[in-house]
Amino acid sequence: MRPANIMHLGVKELRSMLRDPILVAFMVYALTAAIYAGASFMSGTLNRAALAIVNEDHSPLSLRIEEAFHAPYFLPPRLISASQIDRRLDTGADTFVLDIPPNFQRDVLAGRRPEVQLNVDATNISQALAGSNDIQAIVHQEVQAFAARHQSTARPPVDLALRVRFNPTLDQSWFGAVMELINNVNLLAVVLPGAALIRERERGTLEHLLAMPVTSFEIMTAKLWSMGVVVLVGCALSLAFVVQGLLRVPSQGSVILFLVGAGMFLFAATSMGMALGTVAHTMPQFGLLLMLVIIPLEILSGGVTPRESMPAFVRDLMMVAPTTHFVLLAQAILYRGAGISIVWPQFVALTVIGAALFSFALMRFRRALAATT
User: Fold this and answer.
1) Whole-model pTM above 0.85?
2) Section 78-87 average pLDDT
3) Are residues 186 and 60 in the same domain?
4) I need a labelling partner for 18 at 20 to 30 A (CA). Which of 25, 79, 131, 183 fits?
5) In the chain, how many domains are there?
6) Residue 309 gets which letter from DSSP?
7) What are phi and psi of 51, to 5 degrees?
């Protein structure tokens, strides 16, 4: 092995990638607009929902409920009549219609437990579910606060003191931004080396490399370090300018420590992409393999749903995936300010998994080269 060969071959890979405008545009999009969109417009978050109110009471309590719905969760409520409910829901003008009945305030103060009707357009099921719960909580809170001023209410025997750590405003974009960054870094780390290998095979330049005095180890290592450096630099820039800058997500821990962990993860993920590139012979085949690999990695690694909610055998199986350990160390460092004394098990796991994937990818690559010759 000669380090000069690895360096020159890696520079060749960088130049080849820069001459592919579609691939460059995809990288820029994945590390900028995709992260911003995924963090700002999460499907489970209520955002500017259209709400209409049929106020048949016109009492101070009903007016108080009208004023309780604020941006950015709801648009300013529209006041409509009962005859307009069906038409506005059918045309999609409103997602929620709240109908406050006559004598609502009088019945509340008399303890009669009146009913408020909420009509929901469940075409967008995530908005409908989140909005229904939020509207119910808002109406209940306003009614309780109003009733407490006019009649004695029993005080609960226990007061719950709620203290939220690491995300005191419960802003879902703080979670979504980092997880979108991790998912897109994982995607790019697998795609770039595999696409580079297939591009060499399709253009016939792989045979040219085999005629040169270089080894398979040098060719593969060059592809891995060049693609890994590109993704690592993109990750650092995206974290600084998109996550921390544009989305204003604070980082509690050391960014340098996170980038070191990202580099170790990229060693494993790029090796995985290289192995997939030796299995697929064309880009369409490579794309199908990506669907089978990337989607389970992102869903089951803890970046989309908590690992605690998964079956035990799935949690144990995903511990051999590098994405799981990257998610664990990223959440610990960026969210909770953890140091190396806490995340060292993830660093060790990434080292072991990366070495195993590199050895497997190198074996597959040598077999592919032998079949080519």
Assistant:
1) no
2) 92
3) no
4) 183
5) 2
6) G
7) -125, 135
The residue behind tokens 């806490």 is 342
Which pair of tokens denotes residue 153?
Answer: 């209410």
CATH of the domain at 117: 3.40.1710.10
192-205 confidence digits (pLDDT tens): 999 888 888 877 77
3-state helix, strand, coil in the chain (%, to 5): 65, 5, 30
Range of the domain at 308: 3-40+168-372
Provide the CA 368 distance to its chain's centre, in angstroms.
Answer: 35
Tell me, yes or no, whether 314 and 267 share the same domain. Answer: yes
Whether 94 and 188 share a structural domain:
no
- Whether residue 194 is found in the same domain as residue 88: no
Amino acid identity of residue 94, one-letter, is D
The 8-class DSSP code of residue 49 comes to B
Distance from C-alpha of 284 to C-alpha of 289, rounded to nearest angstrom: 9
pLDDT reading at 300 higher than 60: yes
- Contact (Cβ atoms closer than 8 angstroms) between residue 324 and residue 241: no
Tens of pLDDT, residues 35-49: 998 887 765 567 788
At 169, the pLDDT band (50, 70, 90 cuts) reads confident
